């Protein structure tokens, strides 16, 4: 029978057969897929694996620690952390256009990852080992979407990873390519990855940068991070994490709203709560969260995050709206 133990054992066998005694690199994002893929490779060929985590400073509260501390503790991977916060902030300075933000983040990410991979390749080379493989957390639905069948996906991915330069050619190892998301989560649990990571809601690669309407800077990120942490903590406290597909919190940094606190008139910013229900993010419906929960989130955000004086709820489905605001 096809059990989780079988899936793990079989994936481990396949990875060993493919990688042999060569070195292998994996980029971690903090998301479910890259975490589970890395953990499988770690189980298969642990001392040949080096993971890279690029901290672009656009993650939510606690997420970098989840990778650097909890994931490492649970799996024992050799982690190479690149603190690239300054670099991303200065590249994003003054940029308001959402697609421009995405382009900049994608470009910087590739550059930082390239540098890190080059270092790892050089170090391994000096020790007489070659780095030939790169782990990718591709799932079955991605494989089907990118042209269907093994052959097509192989042509697309083999020796051709996301625009890496010629001197950094890797063959991909894709241990999740036969799995659906729920199976990936089950494998993650089987491998002892912390529940916070295994059950994490989808989070976009460009992170909080596309949840700040307007330009991104350190202060705005901090405001959004605090508001977002409150919303997530209250959702968890209410036991509703798994009832919601995603729960973006969006800072309208370009909008000022008038408020009153004590005797003071304030001129702050609104945040938008965007909880949605969905199967696959292609369509979505706004989640009917309990009023008491919404009230707690609103009260706490406006009490605890001085810069925010208004909390609004997005009651639009997708279509016509998208899940994210940018
Ligand atoms: P939308 O906003 O288009 O989002 O309804 C659909 C899903 O995609 C995620 N999303 C992104 N993920 N990079 C990503 O990795 C992006 O630039 C990006 N934009 C949107 C979004 O969070 C939702 O899950």
TrEMBL record:
Q: State the reactions this protein catalyses.
A: XMP + L-glutamine + ATP + H2O = GMP + L-glutamate + AMP + diphosphate + 2 H(+)
Positions contributing to ATP binding: 29-35
Q: What would be an example GO MF term here?
A: ATP binding
GMPS ATP-PPase domain: residues covered: 2-200
The EC number on file is 6.3.5.2
The UniProt keywords, alphabetically, are: ATP-binding, Glutamine amidotransferase, GMP biosynthesis, Ligase, Nucleotide-binding, Purine biosynthesis
| Pathway(s) the chain acts in | Purine metabolism; GMP biosynthesis; GMP from XMP (L-Gln route): step 1/1
A GO cellular component entry from the record: cytosol
According to its UniProt entry, the function of this protein is described as:
Catalyzes the synthesis of GMP from XMP.
Describe, as the record does, how this protein assembles with itself and its partners.
Answer: Homodimer.
The identity of this protein, by name, is GMP synthase [glutamine-hydrolyzing]
The encoding gene: guaA
């Amino acid at each position: 029978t096809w059990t989780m133990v079988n899936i793990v054992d079989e994936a481990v066998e396949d990875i060993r057969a493919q990688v042999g005694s060569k070195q292998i690199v994996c980029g971690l994002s903090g998301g479910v897929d890259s975490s589970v893929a890395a953990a499988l490779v770690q189980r298969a060929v642990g001392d040949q694996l080096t993971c890279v985590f690029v901290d672009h400073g656009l993650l939510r509260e606690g997420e970098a620690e989840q990778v650097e501390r909890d994931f490492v503790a649970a799996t024992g991977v050799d982690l190479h952390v690149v603190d690239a916060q300054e670099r991303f902030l200065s590249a994003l300075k003054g940029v308001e256009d959402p697609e421009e933000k995405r382009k900049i983040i994608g470009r910087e990410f590739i550059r930082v990852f390239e540098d890190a991979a080059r270092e790892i390749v050089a170090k391994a080379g000096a020790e007489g080992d070659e780095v030939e493989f790169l782990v990718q957390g591709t799932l079955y639905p991605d494989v089907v979407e990118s042209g269907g069948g093994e052959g097509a996906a192989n042509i697309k991915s083999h020796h051709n990873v996301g625009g890496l330069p010629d001197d950094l050619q890797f063959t991909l190892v894709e241990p999740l390519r036969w799995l659906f998301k729920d199976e990936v989560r089950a494998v993650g649990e089987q491998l002892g990855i912390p529940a916070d990571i295994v059950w994490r809601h989808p989070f976009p690669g460009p992170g909080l940068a596309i949840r700040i309407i307007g330009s991104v800077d350190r202060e705005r990120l901090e405001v959004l991070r605090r508001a977002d942490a409150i919303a997530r903590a209250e959702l968890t406290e209410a036991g509703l994490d798994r009832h919601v597909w995603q729960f973006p919190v969006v800072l309208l940094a370009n909008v000022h709203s008038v408020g009153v606190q004590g005797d003071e008139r304030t001129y702050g910013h609104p945040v938008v709560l965007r909880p949605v229900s969905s199967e696959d993010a292609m369509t979505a419906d706004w989640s009917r969260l309990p009023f008491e929960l919404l009230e707690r989130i609103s009260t706490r955000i406006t009490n605890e995050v001085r810069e925010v004086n208004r909390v609004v709820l997005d009651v639009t489905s997708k279509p016509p709206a998208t899940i994210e605001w940018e």
